[in-house]
Amino acid sequence: MSLVAKRTVMILYSDERCPYSHQVRIVLAEKGVNVDIQHVSPQYLPQDLIDINPYYSLPTLVDRDLVLYNAPIIMEYLDERFPHPPLLPVYPVARANSRKLLFRVEQDWYRLMRTIITNHPEQATQARQQLKDSLVSVNAVFSDQEFFLSQEFSLIDCYIAPLLWRLPQMGIELPAQAKGIQDYAERIFGRKSFQESLSECERELRAA
Length: 208
Description:
By secondary structure, this protein is an alpha+beta fold. Helices cover 56% and strands 8% of the residues. It has a four-stranded mixed sheet with strand order 2-1-3-4. It starts with a helix and ends with a helix.
């Protein structure tokens, strides 16, 4: 671990196309953290990352002698390390509910996104329709408050936003009755932290 101990500036090894790396970049931008973001290809990982991450995965965060390599863990660490503005509730029950929502978003939506992006065309077509239907079915939830089930921007918004940004890439166009989601997405996409979080590759997803 001596290689890690020599680092004095926080480093994020990030895949500029990866939604999980994007999640972490939103949190960093929201917190205004001074960080060295190094975009690397998952096919050509630098040796210093291979030396410190046994899973060779992205994103990976290095903060002095600490190495983290799971997006939800990194995001929660950053929220505790830099408590203002807070992105998770203070009270245990509310925090547990937020973690449960993060888990559901991962299982219900991100799982389908991975299928769309990586799997056989027939499976992708089915997953695309399932994801679209699932989003439309909870349109009222997005309409209810300014942010997702909250009046305050939270870790859940950081988790959902990269997926919504990638809907065009997945070939998903939301119908008119999903106006609540579309309005929510525009509010999130317009935030300074979200704009700062975007890599050049991610900007190109909606350049047209």
